[in-house]
Design goal:
Elements lengths: L5 E6 L7 H15 L3 E5 L3 H5 L3 E4 L26 E5 L2 E5 L2 H10 L4 E6 L1 H12 L4 E5 L15 H22 L2 E6 L6 H9 L4 E3 L7 H13 L5 E6 L11 E4 L7 E3 L2 H13 L3 E5 L11 H19 L5 E6 L2 E6 H4 L11 H8 L7
Bound molecules: 6-O-phosphono-beta-D-fructofuranose.
């Protein structure tokens, strides 16, 4: 006997295509295969703090496989250890972990499946230390979670970014312009590298390889001299010049990860136009990359991850993160991934493959 009768599932961090596919896989595996009860916790850790959770049924998870976002709601601000509480007309930051533990016990939740990124896994490993049975499922469009070769949501983001790069090609070629597309990814350039390669982008700028604006301009001008009167640049929001800083769009002091990157595309557009005289336009793809229906690969991965998470719970293999290594789904200790990022090694085979076809990284 596993001693597990009811599991809770929550989604935390930014939304990501495939979250609902995981929720569906968790619920269906738990309900049908293991005859468990499944409770959906609302809005990530906030639902645990505020005791907002409800039973999930086969009906409530029916028809959500292709749906973007998360039916449970999510939150990328709340961390139980630093939760703003109203006190005497002011706000104090308090550790409300006890409240979460109380609600888990009160609702007879025997194990938690937590779907999130590195920040979420940091919060989850704290619960693990306090004796809560947890299994993590890695989520992020950025593909930067340590310990797994791939996260669901990434393939969808890459396909959206690729389509955008393909489409700006028309305007670039017709108007003889430089067109820049800024993509997400935080400190990792995976989305830029994959979508840039998939669309044959001339210049790819990623955080892992700081760039020189002179080299970027040189590449654009050289193309012009060769008769290619346009260039397309894919820049990751976290890219920076060799002697510069990342461009910050906004600071959110209420978030455990307060920095929101963005704006590098606009900056390099002005620099290129000023240096070369070539008309340069930029487009920031933003949350478009996280929206809408997941591509087939993400639905498949999410379904595999969700089912595996419940299997681990039932095998008593708690405190693990479900991961993909090569083509195999396996698991690692949850705390191993907490708070770490998986960046692109500068000698990654994909970087070499892009260089082989003449892609400029601005070095
Ligand atoms: O981690 C996913 C992500 O979309 C990043 O690529 C981006 O930097 C960040 O989240 C944006 O966060 P928010 O939705 O809070 O602006």
């Amino acid at each position: 006997m596993s001693g597990i009768h009811r599991i809770g599932v929550l989604t935390a961090g930014g939304d990501c295509p495939g979250l609902n596919a995981v929720i569906r896989a968790v619920a269906k595996t738990a309900l049908s295969r293991f005859n468990l009860e499944v409770w959906g916790i609302e809005d990530g850790f906030l639902g645990l703090i505020q005791n907002r959770m409800h039973p999930l049924t086969n009906e409530s998870v029916s028809n959500i496989l292709t749906l973007g976002g998360t039916i449970l709601g999510t939150n990328n601000r709340v961390e139980p250890r630093r939760y703003p509480v109203k006190v005497n007309g002011g706000t104090e930051i308090r550790d409300v972990t006890d409240r979460c533990l109380e609600h888990i016990a009160h609702n007879h939740i025997d194990a938690l499946v937590v779907i999130g990124g590195d920040g979420t896994m940091t919060g989850t490993s704290h619960f693990v230390q306090l004796g809560v049975n947890c299994v993590g499922v890695p989520k992020t469009i950025d593909n930067d979670l340590y310990g797994t070769d791939v996260t669901f949501g990434f393939a969808t983001a890459v396909s959206i970014a690729t389509e955008a790069l393909d489409r700006v090609h028309t305007t670039a070629a017709s108007h003889h312009r430089v067109m820049i597309v800024e993509v997400m990814g935080r400190n990792a350039g995976w989305i830029a590298l994959h979508s840039g390669m998939a669309s044959g982008t001339d210049v790819i700028l990623i955080p892992e390889i700081p760039f020189s604006i002179e080299k970027v301009c040189e590449s654009v001008v050289n193309r012009s001299k060769r008769g290619k009167r346009f260039s397309i640049i894919c820049v990751s929001e976290g890219a920076r010049q060799t002697d510069g800083e990342q461009v910050v769009d906004r600071l959110d002091p209420t978030s455990p990860d307060p920095i929101r990157l963005g704006g590098i595309g606009q900056k390099i557009a002005s620099d290129i136009e000023a240096a070369t005289g070539i008309e340069t336009r930029t487009m920031k793809l933003g949350h478009m990359q996280r929206g809408g229906t997941p591509v087939a690969a993400d639905r498949v991965l999410a379904t595999e991850f969700g089912g595996t998470a419940v299997e681990l719970v039932m095998a008593g293999t708690h405190n693990r993160l479900v991961v993909m290594k090569g083509r195999t789904v396996t698991h690692i200790p949850l705390e191993e991934a907490a708070g770490k990022q998986r960046l692109i090694p500068v000698n990654h085979p994909l970087v070499r493959a892009a260089r082989n076809v003449g892609t400029c990284f601005g070095e």
